[in-house]
From TrEMBL:
Keywords: Iron, Membrane, Metal-binding, Transmembrane, Transmembrane helix
Gene3D superfamilies registered for this protein in UniProt: Cytochrome P450
SUPFAM superfamilies, per database record: Cytochrome P450
Protein's UniProt name: Cytochrome P450
A Pfam family per the record: p450
Coiled-coil region list: none
Superkingdom of the source species: Eukaryota
Cofactor(s) annotated in UniProt: heme
Length: 223
């Protein structure tokens, strides 16, 4: 109680000061720092990050975010601030650089790509990528790939194109790419290992159970 006997210091004023200080901290962390202090400060964009964030939220709420981004990129270029401490990118090369390397931090939704299965292409874990790369590098070195090229061209490319065209010619508007992917791998493996190709891509009714012999290779191809 003695703390509140100091002249001019009351509980409401202390609480107000705490609230103002906390709001100031949030403003600095989420709006001022990303735009004017942090590593993204050199990226072009409106100087008022808070106002930009309000415009961004309004565009999302009204259902016209594409216009918001179009106007933003037209004015500030292919890479610019877009509010909420984020950067909008419309440059394909820059996007490819970011998503093809584990060195750039990804948002949590990126982890759920490709059926939420971590593989050598989607992983952001450097150790995981290094281990998987060593596992398959012996089988898929430059010399081996050259030797397998003719088989892959026939079974993975030519026959896959044939299967897709056949599906479309039958009046279908959808193609089960995942099934074709497994069939093409099965054809290549059966030709190389067994010595006789399944030709499952050319046989729509080919029993999927026969492809089970290639299951270990399927799992490796999804690594």
């Amino acid at each position: 109680m003695l703390g509140f006997l100091i002249e001019g210091v009351t509980l409401p004023r202390v609480l107000l000061a705490i609230i103002i200080g906390y709001l100031g901290y949030l403003y600095y962390k989420n709006f001022h720092y990303p735009r004017h202090v942090g590593p993204l400060k050199t990226i072009p964009g409106p100087s008022n990050e808070l106002l930009l964030t309000i415009k961004f939220i309004y565009a999302r709420a009204t259902g016209v975010p594409e216009k918001f981004y179009k106007d933003l990129h037209t004015k500030y270029g292919p890479i610019c601030h877009s509010g909420l401490g984020l950067v909008a990118i419309s440059d394909p090369e820059a996007a490819k650089l970011i998503y093809s390397s584990y060195k750039f931090e990804k948002e949590y939704r990126f982890e759920y790509c490709i059926e939420n299965v971590q593989n050598i292409f989607s992983t952001c874990d450097k150790k995981y990528h290094s281990i998987r790369k060593r596992m398959i590098s012996l089988a898929f070195n430059w010399k081996s790939v050259i030797q397998l090229e003719s088989h892959a061209a026939i079974h993975c490319v030519d026959n896959t194109i044939f299967a897709i065209n056949e599906v479309l010619d039958n009046g279908n508007t959808q193609v089960d790419v995942y099934d074709l992917f497994h069939r093409s791998i099965g054809d290549v493996i059966s030709d190389l290992v067994i010595g006789r190709c399944f030709n499952s891509l050319k046989k729509p009714n080919f029993p999927a159970t026969k492809l089970s012999v290639c299951a270990p290779a399927f799992r490796l191809s999804e690594v």
